[in-house]
Amino acid sequence: MDAGPSVVAGTTCEQYAFRQNGIDWQVWIQKGDHPLPRKLVITTTSDAARPQHTAVYAWNLAPSFNEAAFVFDPPPGAERVALAKGAAAAPASDKNE
């Protein structure tokens, strides 16, 4: 169901609530040009304690990275892992003969 407008961390959202076997869940979707999820709440209804998980999301739509962010700098003592080669797959025409 559409629960209507709500605010999450200062951002106007539309709140939706869903009911499934064993869980209820709610999601808050940011209104405007970037309809991103801002909050999620999952409630287990099959447990008498009704445990819940809540996550609040913050999005950076203009991140800045430099090349150094993608360079692997192994810690002292790290060693390369040798990978074994797998057997070559049989050609498709040989599989059903």
Structural write-up:
The protein is mainly β and 97 residues long. The protein has a domain at 2-60. Helices cover 0% and strands 39% of the residues. A five-stranded antiparallel β-sheet has the order 1-2-3-4-5, with no helix packed on it. The radius of gyration is 24 Å and the shape is extended.
List keywords for this structure.
97 residues, 5-stranded antiparallel beta sheet, single chain, 5 strands, mainly beta
Helices and strands, with pairings:
Elements lengths: L1 E7 L2 E10 L2 E8 L6 E8 L7 E5 L41
Radius of gyration based on Cα positions = 24 Å
Q: Can you count the beta strands?
A: 5
- β-strand amount: 35-45%
Helix content: under 10%
Strand order of the largest sheet: 1-2-3-4-5
Count of helix runs:
0
Residue stretches low in confidence (pLDDT < 50, at least 5 long) are: none
Please summarize what this structure is.
It contains no helices and five strands. With 97 residues, it is an all-beta fold.
